[in-house]
Amino acid sequence: MNAFLVKDIMLLLRDRSELLILLAMPFLLIAILGFSLRGIFSGDLEALEMDIALVAEEDEAQAVASIQNEIGQMGLPPGQVQALKQAAQSASPQKMLISLLEDENLSELITVERMARAQAQESLDEETVDAVITLPEGFTEDSLRNMLFGSSGGGKLELLVADLSSPQTDVLHSILQEFVRTVNFEASISRLSGREAAAEVSGGIETITARQPITSFQYYTVGMAVMFVLFVGSTIAGQANLEQKQMVFDRIRLSDRPPLLYLTGKAIAAAAIVTVQLALLFGLSALLFQTFAADSWAFWSGIAIISITLALSVGCLAALMVAITLRLESDAVPAIFSGGVISLMAFVGGSFMPLDGMPEMLWAIGNWTPNGAALSAYFSWLLEPDFGQLWEPLMRIAIVAAVFLSLALALFPRKGGTA
């Protein structure tokens, strides 16, 4: 078996294109994704800072006074008239929006500057501001009529952005949506309860965990590592197909060596290659990007346990792919696996992006893929180095590995042709 193992490793070392895919490609993606998405994962707001131009095309005081005059002419009891007038004064949507955008909780994220429309458009064209919020003529009056009387067709905000696909645009759009939703909800509750109370809108970003969050470099170092180890399986299966065409496998079956030694050698070779691959990716990422600040043996021992378990699982997966490839006598299996199945497993496993908000079934499937379970184990260890938390994801990896190995042994051709 030692001869088989050395042969497989030497064949891979001679294939520079495969080495490029297994080592250089994930490291390149870690650098690109880590730099481009830094701050979003870590909670650092620098990547989301935005300058906003606010254009108010109406006189707020005059609009509020106009609504108050309407209230006075409605023939309501004096007490109700007074309450509605006070609500109109305190519930001015323009005042609430400006208060929200200039709130100290959002001061690190948003900088607001009031401008005329022409100046704001010019600034947007020159990209000195990221967005323009316009309060058109009639915004305050229409909004107050809707809030106080339930009139249809409330005020409408206008939002222009420099880059529709930027993260800043998504954040600002979410803030404005939440503002509108909160004001409408509070106004509806007030009307139904008979109160004339002003809606209160506040904003900010809160940290709900005392632990340091996962950074973009940590996320994509782990995500790309658990994804690209899967390519080792297709690489080993491709080598097996080539050896079958060159009659190497037939000569082994004609010799006095058990054919299962060939399969075992492939599985161990894949596991060894994955172990080295993970060690290089984690080591270089920690060295060049300071991805992992922990320098204790306890921390790296946890990483090593997860990596070895994942390596053994990928070795069993490689054995299964080799068995199917030899049985079908076709190179379609490694081609399909590397061309589409790996991307699908990476997606459901969370290598490309967090699965928060995805359907629960997708999340459950991802947790039972070796890469998805390993991703969960790595992140659990990064957030809280506790061996007790590794039991569940490592058990899932081991169960999946056992299934792969059982199928490989059942499908592996031992004698004569493809039987």
Automatic annotation (TrEMBL):
One cellular component term from this protein's GO annotations in UniProt: plasma membrane
InterPro entries: ABC-2_transporter_component, ABC2_TM
Pfam families: ABC2_membrane_3 (PF12698)
Transmembrane segment boundaries: 20-41, 219-240, 260-287, 299-326, 332-355, 362-381, 393-412
Keyword line: Cell membrane, Membrane, Transmembrane, Transmembrane helix
Domain ABC-2 type transporter transmembrane stretches: 19-409
Annotated GO MF terms: ABC-type transporter activity
Membrane topology: Multi-pass membrane protein
Record-given protein name: ABC-2 type transporter transmembrane domain-containing protein
Organism this protein belongs to: Planococcus plakortidis
